[in-house]
């Protein structure tokens, strides 16, 4: 074989061997940087998702009070419902308290009961505002006259009947109203008589507190429970 042909054959053999070697090696692994970046991007929440989870974490879970419903899922406006509303409308002072109450009712009640409760919440919020304005106009002092207190009791009752209805008035304010009636009657009978014993003295002090509470906003058990003024 001529030297030129022998050299060409050797070069061809070497080239074939190189191609075979490269084919036998595994493919080069891709750079991990894009995969890591893709993973990071997948895990990073969007702005909307981040806002959702932030608001979810700051959401007020509301009072742990169960709202009563009938067997047909209709609302029962008992005192427990008033406590739920007082939690938002009296314990909170921010401008969004009524909206927060509405959202709580929507979360915890079926649609029909929720709509009824939301309407009652609006009525109750309006009542509290009207009651505050009416009370301010009375200009009561620390120890108001019993006659003026009795007249004020009647005004409150009429306001509640007009804005909340007879059933809600009885369920939510019946006990308060009965206590005030009793306190007015006892104060009229025992104005100058000394207490017979310590129990009677404590009872009179309690009744005097009932009279003082009647001239506050709101004059209810919620005043003591939530510290509302």
From TrEMBL:
GO terms for biological process: lipid catabolic process; protein folding. It comes from the Bacteria. It is found in: Cell inner membrane. Its main location: membrane. Residues 188-229 are annotated as: Disordered. It is a single-pass membrane protein. Keywords: Cell inner membrane, Cell membrane, Chaperone, Lipid degradation, Lipid metabolism, Membrane, Signal, Transmembrane, Transmembrane helix. Residues 207-220 have a biased composition (Polar residues). InterPro entries: Lipase_chaperone. One of its GO terms (cellular component) is plasma membrane. Residues 1-29 form the signal peptide. GO terms for molecular function: unfolded protein binding. Belongs to the lipase chaperone family. This is Lipase helper protein.
